[in-house]
Amino acid sequence: MDKERHLDAVDPEKGEAVSAQNAAPTLELGLSLTALWVGYYRMREVEQKTPLFYDPVAKAIMGEDDARWAFQRMQETLEDSWLMSKAAYARSEANFFPVRTRFIDDHIGRSLEAQVLCAQSTSGGNPPRQLQVVDMACGFDGRAFRLDFPSNTLFFEVDREEVMALKESRLSQIRPPDLTCARRVCISADIITDKWETALFNNGFDPTLPTVWIMEGILTYLPLPVAKALLARVRAISAPGSSLVCDVVNAAIKYATPMKKRMRFLRDEGAEYNLFISDPIAFWTNAGFSQIRYNFPGDNDASYGRIPPHPFLQLMRIVIRFVIAVLYLGAGFLSGFFLPIWAGIIVLVGSIVLCEGWALLFQEWLARRLTLFFFPLAYFTEVFV
Q1: Which of 47, 137, 152, 285 has its CA 20 to 30 A from that of 68?
Q2: Tell me, what is one Gene Ontology molecular-function annotation carried by this entry (predicted)?
Q3: Could you give the CA distance from residue 147 to residue 178 in angstroms, rounded to a whole number?
Q4: Contacts of 106 (CB under 8 A, 6+ apart)
Q5: Please, which pLDDT band fits residue 125 given cuts at 50, 70 and 90?
Q6: 292 alpha-carbon distance from chain centroid
Q7: Helices assigned H by DSSP within the chain
């Protein structure tokens, strides 16, 4: 297989779509492959009986043949394991990516609503002058056309020139729905090597106003120093009240048998998994963010009826709860050796009543920590400035 996949593009002189064979620019495998692969699931989601979202431009942007090619290419990189068959893993991916997209969509809606309410409460009921959303390495997502934005929202899309050229070429071949945001601004820039901040400033971005930052499917591929540098750049131009939503993976995923073949393939194609976050609180605190929230797929806020509660997390909750119950009983029995039976019962009941809230918090904290350290996991994170 060649290392390039030629796709439809725009002739820079004529402004017309050209054939795949002569397309320029071309999209290399690696990160562009993963963008098409994820796009395949987004494209398929709109065909479900009860879709988690409706993307009216997904099929046009992806190109059905290209998305299917990327999907099949990625499916070939899975393998069976004692933990999960490759067929089961493929089914889990088919639910994970739509859930991830919907989770991020919901974060955007909540964050913009909170910004509006905050502005109204501090300005006598007046709406904010401008709302702004920045979709970093946006790929082939059609979020600007999919979501219902307040009319004073600027929606920025940032990605490499060849990705944006292909996306705009395909959008020009259809009649996309009208935007609800004030403006959709497309910025052709590499988020690592280019000065995308300058392009944002030149196109209406206001660093004194809160921003919703989207990093969907990005951070996992960045080495730790690169990820830290990118987050520092984002943090530097984010006003108080800004938020960032993303997905990351933990270190245990490196040892997941179904993923080993895929990770070797992605490494060879320049899209290696590089960033593993098993302690989200420490990572995001060190990056200068606060109000750190992370959700496992299957949590109440990250299920949408598609993903069941995480089995390892459920098991850890049961085990920890059992240990706590044994400690309670042990305290009651021990007190019975030194106190009358009635006093021992009072001690036991009192310890349960007084410590139950703490025990539940400890149980949940420990169960989630153990899951992050021992079970392969991709999960969603929301952080604030």
Answers
A1: 137
A2: methyltransferase activity
A3: 11
A4: none
A5: confident
A6: 14
A7: 31-45, 58-62, 64-75, 86-122, 143-146, 161-171, 196-202, 224-236, 257-268, 280-286, 311-338, 341-374
Label residue 206 exposed, middle or buried (CB < 10 Å: 0-12, 13-18, 19+).
middle
> How many whole angstroms separate alpha carbon 3 and alpha carbon 17?
23
pTM above 0.90, yes or no: no
Q: Which of 262, 265, 241, 242 is nearest to 253 (CA)?
A: 262
The token duo for 233 is 């750049």
Nearest-angstrom CA–CA distance, 310 and 313: 5
> Do 224 and 233 touch, CB atoms closer than 8 A?
no
- Spacing of C-alpha 281 from chain mean position: 16
Least reliable range by pLDDT among 22-31, 45-54, 132-141:
22-31
Decide if 70 contacts 44 (C-beta within 8 A).
Answer: no
Please give the domain boundaries of the chain with CATH numbers for all domains: 86-276 (3.40.50.150), 311-371 (no CATH)
Most confident of the following: 92-96, 311-315, 367-371: 92-96
153 pairs with which residues across the strands? 131
